[in-house]
Predict the 3D structure of the following.
Amino acid sequence: MKIDLYLTHARIFNVYLKKFIEGNIAVSGGRFLYIGTVEPPVQPLKTIDLAGKYVIPGMIDCHMHIESTMVAPHTFLRGSVKNGVTTLIAEPHEIANVFGVEGIRALAAAAADGPAHVYIAIPSSVPSTNETLETTGAVIGTAEVEQLLHMDQVICLGEVMNGHDLIADDHSRISELVRQVRHIRPDFPLEGHLPRFLDWDLARILYTGVNSDHTDQSVETVRQRIANGCFIELQDKTLRPDIVQYIIDENLFEHMAIVTDDTMPDDFVERGTLNYLVQKAMNLGFTPEQAVYTTTYTPARRMGLRDRGSIAPGKVADFVILDNLNDFHICSTYCDAKEVYNRNVPPVEEQRDTSFPNRFYHSVHAAPMKEDDFVLPTEQQDGTVRCRLLVVSSDTTFVQSEEVEVPVRNHEIDWDDSPYNLAVVVERHGKNHGRGYARPTDAIQRLRKGKNHGRGYALVGGSALKRGAAATTYAHDHHNLLIIGQNKRDMMTAANAVIEAQGGYAVAYHGSVTAFAPLPIAGILSDQPLPVLGRQIQKVRASLESLGYVHHNVIMSLSTLSLPVSPFYKLTDKGIVDVQKQRIVPLVIDG
């Protein structure tokens, strides 16, 4: 027996007793050996007196997307351990939508030598719907899942987003993938994305084996899910007073975990990840013990990680030392018994990330755009036409639909003299080169049918832009080129800035780019250090807000305008999608 590390005078969180106990911790061979007060039988190689500091298991983020933070994996992991997160279950469907299995393998390889443990959730919904409703750079089907099931890091089936097809068609791709994973790996958790599913629809999804949900919740959806054996993953937007109080009143901590899902780069820098959510949960009523329990033990149990999530003999020695529990003030983080973060040690200066293959830097296959690309022709010479309007709300990413009258002048829908934005999604994966209209007559017919050749068009109102324009290739989940604006010139300026940089976010006003965050890796990741990207994204956020975009997370609102599994209407390169009916609907309703 040898003791590599001995921590004395600690306040240790015991997940089984759900309380802190005073004692010492012995570590041997990267695992916990002993927790208690009896003196060790051999001399430890290293002893640290914690003088009453708190020790908790390394936190586990069981539903998250590295790509959401828009930095390369190694950069992301250095930030994660600073926040006390030592294990992450990454669902890489963002990069899979661009590069498929190759993208998943590249991301896993880039994360392999990082300071934290990364496991992979197989992306189940690439595309999030189907090829009729959106174009992606790749498709994950049964053959691709067969390959991924043999990857060492793979641990579960990632979020099943297309619940409509899962319950409506036993022969849909998502139904086949779920059956395939259940047959080959019956031990794998099957993660769900179940917005607004209740009663019979919820039961039918759970019947397939998909039995978790991390989407927006109400007390009633939480009640139905937990009552039916569905595991709840609460993220920032669902850590609300009513839901937290319901969890507390009904003592439902065994059936839920706190997760990040998506974290914006500037939020990552300024407030952190799970550490921030632990503090938020405590502010809303969770005790420190309850908040830590649901970021350590319950996510480990959900993912079948029996070797971690607690401080006990034989468990992996991932742990976090804090000097202030209520403020969750992290002193240091250990992964496999090695110190990977210490707040008193100056961080190593980060460098540009070059871990991805060269071709990942050349993924935006779209020609430069002209102002004419944002013309909406119509067979009517003058007057008005009735159009569908997508209405953005300031407090949700759900988008409603209204009908509005828009003026027509000289066979063009005069949208830029209206109070509405024009939004365009351009296919950028090289499938059809995002081509515009072949002839004016084609344009008219496609607008009336809601189908365009490589481009989808919509009018957008509500809390969206009031001036200027924005463009991005970070358009969930297909990651085509999304442009939105109040005039053609600014839309062209923003779009071309993104195309030239091979991806990113651009905001334009009066014909000039006012904020820009390049994302050259697959059009969705930066190769810059996190603080650099954080400042760039913060400027993009501020520019969007200065141009009248009102939302608690304007970047997420913009990026999910094209997510066709998020209620109720969204825009893809195929056109406007009625999410509930899963079909393309026309922009021009009458004219």
The mean pLDDT is 94. The chain has 16 helices and 29 strands.
